[in-house]
Amino acid sequence: MNVLFLCTGNSARSILAEVLLNELGEGRYTAYSAGSYPTGQVNPGALQKLVAAGHSVDGLASKSWDQFSGDAAPRIDIVITVCDSAAAESCPVWNGAPITVHWGIPDPAYYDDHEARQAAFDIAYARLRRRIEGMLALSPELAANDLRSALTKVHERAREADLARA
After folding, report:
1. Domain positions in the chain
2. Is 91 a catalytic residue?
3. For an engineered disulfide with 3, which of 33, 67, 78, 121 has Cβ 3.0 to 4.6 Å away?
4. What are phi and psi of 100, to 5 degrees?
């Protein structure tokens, strides 16, 4: 299954999610990320967090969601928005008529202070990892409507865990 993580800038949260699902999913999913208004570069804080957590950052780029629509684009099975702005936007038509869900994660790039920004990247990474681990625990046999519901529940349970840790 192909999963597209969307965020407005495609520089932080969606990049973290793409890497996490590709590595933790061990081939079960192919993850991509894109933005409605991509910044054109991956946020250095995202790269630092990924490297510190032992992930490869080779080939990561901030991309437009346009590259995932049209005849030449890969079929997308699931679209997950990770920022509220992207969730509210009118998306292009994706190949594959994917299911869509929203996993709102606060933007770690928002902070000016280095220590606060680093802590925010740690939190965003942990929150995304919990959701992706929950996603990977789901049965691959779920029908589309059941999968949408299950992915929404994964987010809701993870959000409760997020609040308990705060």
Report:
1. 2-165
2. yes
3. 78
4. -125, 140
